[in-house]
Amino acid sequence: MAVIETRALTKRYPRVTALDALDVSVGDGVTGLVGANGAGKSTLIKILLGLLPPTSGSASVLGHDVVSEGAAVRAQVGYMPEHDCLPADVSANDLTVHLGQLSGLPYPAARERAADVLRHVGLAEERYRPMGGYSTGMKQRAKLAQALVHDPRLVLLDEPTNGLDPASRDEMLALVRRIGTEFGIAVLVTSHLLGELERVSDHVVVLDSGSLLRSSATSAFLDATGTLLVEVQGRADADRALGQALVDRGLTARPGGERLVEVEVGDRSADDVRDLVVATTTDLGLGLVRLQERHHRIEDVFREGLDV
Q1: Rg (CA), the chain
Q2: What is the dihedral of CA 74, 80, 85, 91, to 10 degrees?
Q3: pLDDT tens digits, 75-129
């Protein structure tokens, strides 16, 4: 059974169509929901939670219809909202315990679960402080904790890295990955930063203006391109010199960025092309910094879809 399934799901407003006949199936593990701002990600999450009625079509979460069984959906789903909505004068502990009780947990169980999840998200020491004094990273962790307190089967995380610095972003992404692997909870995580989802997701759903652009395993997005990425150093025109030398030796090469050259493998053996690149670099007296196979990125697929 799919964790999330939509059929011709459509949401229209007077002047815009937020979702347009969306057919999506989401299974276990971590699924990334990606798209530019305004692509329909937050609208989809609100419909999946039963908080926003669709204009037409249908959606089910954990086997429950989101329109007629919204309460059953919310009882088994955790939700981390994108925007800052935490009461400034309440501690993370009190908020998490309270929301655990609202989810049906007795007070002793809610208190125990709150202590566990706050420790897991890294707020063990700060859990009794009012959240008004929290940093952005701490607030994001508190929002994640309240989404997990009632031991949900699925969590919906709306832009969990929003506003975080690079170090805090990495820590949050590691937490998201742990939820889907160690905790065994299905995760749907939204982001407009495509590279983030490559790191943590098993499956990626790409939306564009409310329509499905692509849905497939993350590994399918990252197939090899048949191109080698070569980084060289040693002189100012190292990349241009290497590129021209490789062309002179019968290869297809083009600039790939500062100090980078992209070399097509074509019909040759990849090992033969690598050997020729190494030999040419040595002959030119250049330093070989990096030689690796170039893979597609999610952003490449997204860009190609927009160009169709």
Answers
A1: 24
A2: 100
A3: 999 999 988 889 999 999 999 999 999 999 999 999 999 999 999 999 999 999 9
The distance between the two most distant Cα atoms of the chain, rounded to a whole number of Å, is 75
CB of 23 closer than 8 Å to CB of 215: no
Q: Give the tens place of pLDDT for each residue, 43-55.
A: 999 999 999 999 9
Dist CA 216 CA 26 (whole Å): 10
Model confidence at 268, pLDDT cuts 50, 70, 90, reads confident
Q: What is the pLDDT of residues 9-37, one digit of tens each?
A: 999 999 899 999 999 999 999 999 988 77
Answer yes or no: same fold for 4-221 and 224-307.
no
CA–CA gap between residue 62 and residue 145 (Å, rounded): 21
C-alpha 198/C-alpha 202 separation (Å) is 8
Instruction: Name the fold adopted by 224-307.
Output: Alpha-Beta Plaits (3.30.70)
Residue whose tokens read 């309440």:
90
> DSSP assignment of 286-303, as one string?
-EEEEEEEEE--HHHHHH
CA–CA separation, 64 and 33 (whole Å): 21
Angle at 165 between CA 163 and CA 171, to 5 degrees: 100
Q: Please, which residues bridge with residue 217 across strands?
A: 203
Closest CA to 177 of 163, 187, 192: 187
**Interstrand relation of 154-158 and 77-80 (parallel, antiparallel or unpaired):** parallel
At the fourth CATH level, which superfamily is domain 4-221? P-loop containing nucleotide triphosphate hydrolases (3.40.50.300)
Closest by CA position to 226, among listed 258, 273, 289, 276? 273
User: Which alpha helices (DSSP H) does 154-237 contain, by range?
Assistant: 166-181, 194-200, 218-221
Domain limits, the chain: 4-221, 224-307
User: Per this entry, what is the length of the chain?
Assistant: 308
| Coarse DSSP helix, strand, coil percentages of the chain, rounded to the nearest 5 percent | 40, 30, 30
